[in-house]
# Entry
Amino acid sequence: MFDHTLATQPIPGVTPEVFYRAANIYLQKPHVVNRKLFGASTLATFRVWRGGPVDVDEFVDRLRERLSAGGEDNGIEKGVREVCDDLGWEVELLPEGVDLNGFEGGCLVLKRLLPRNLNVFKPLEVLAIVDPELKRITFRCLQDEENNLTPKFSFAVQLVEETLSIICKSTPTPDEKSSIWLKEVLFRRLLKWIDNLIQKTDQKGEQISLGLINDLEEYNRLYGELKTKYGTEMVRIWPESTDPRKFVYEDVAIATYLL
# Structure
């Protein structure tokens, strides 16, 4: 499926466990490498038993056919189950936050990316397929239109022996902007996380930020509403010499949490 390597580097001493922990940081916290994102919510996580390799593009094409126009959460979950049935896979819905390492057959994870600026961007859904046999996590955006939040094309991070790589399909019209971001931003951050984990200097890197918030999407919506309604004017009339955006938007975030 993937025939093009965007970035690769040997990492002596890396283990599959360390690889999955580092990749899981990006899966659960994509906003740490993309400032346009506020965070990400998990729509569903499935354990799967499958009989063969996964073509994520084929899976997403099948899933799109089953999604309702509004993309309701239960519609996505039902669509995943139907596609898995078509492919002869058995699936089991898992609780959020499970360890993705060690599942025979692998996992499917549906994420919703939440943009910081809801006036400019809209939330997007991403499917991640965890393949323990290949030590690979494949990502594919469910929306086909152009966006500035995540690569539109499918790509994967994988570990082969002690070499980390980001791979994708060759295409006659490559998305250079996304390819550069994967190589220069995501890959470098993965290397840093893996190095930290190997050195045992960042043992809590995989924990989800904003973990005290029960409904991250509602928080994101309300934060954007308060920021637009009050934040812009407060920044404009800020009387101090300090940067108003830092203090005003921090206060807006606190107010959103309290509400």
